[in-house]
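Hi, here's the filled form for the chain we discussed.

Project: internal
Contact: R.S.
Residues: 244
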Amino acid sequence: MISRDRLEAFKAFLDREADALGGINALLPEYACAEVNGSLKRTATFLQAAAAAGSEGILQWLLTDRNADPTIPVPMVCRDDDQDIPDDQQEEADGESVPLKPGGHRTAYDLSKTKAVRDIFRRCAAAYPDNWDWFVAGRVPSGLNKQMEDERDERKKARRKGLKEKFKEREREAATKKVAVGMVESIPEPSPASKPENRTGPQKLGGVSGAIEGIAGLAPDMRARVERERRARAAEARLKGLRQ
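And the returned structure, exactly as it came back:
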């Protein structure tokens, strides 16, 4: 029931069996926890089992309606490799954890695998500060109220907006470079110049005929250099026209 977050069935079960099991904060049998979550090695409370299984409905109900104790130490070893936190949320998750001191203990909050489950503990800590020692014995890092959530959401939106703007800017730069490269590649290579005729007198590099005659009279490496410069200027002029 806990692993599937079946709240109504769980409520009916507790109405019948809570006293026989030892109350809401009693340790569960080992065989029961083995089926709840692989990270629970021995025994746990209902609250710890709900936090480890990510059962948000049952967790909320246990904390608010049944006042389950979030400060009870976890009496089992929880594997670190069972923590299922996406890479893009790892930095934020680190800010919602409390370093474990030598000889310290873990609590239900430490078994929380998702941000939604951690937020339930933080909201209850803010709403019911006198119920438990949330921040020391319960190892909840801080409370969370509506104003804090709104501010956090605004920071997330601003961060996502900034990332989108950077992505769009990179796309624009890539598109501009692609257009420039395409223009240069689209300019045809000049046909081989015919053998220049013997001419007398000065020659000018003016106009189309003048340019051809001028190039034809140069050495091969100089002709190639002049032609490259001509293509580069033509591509630059076309790109400038597109930007305007």
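Let me know if anything looks off before we file it.
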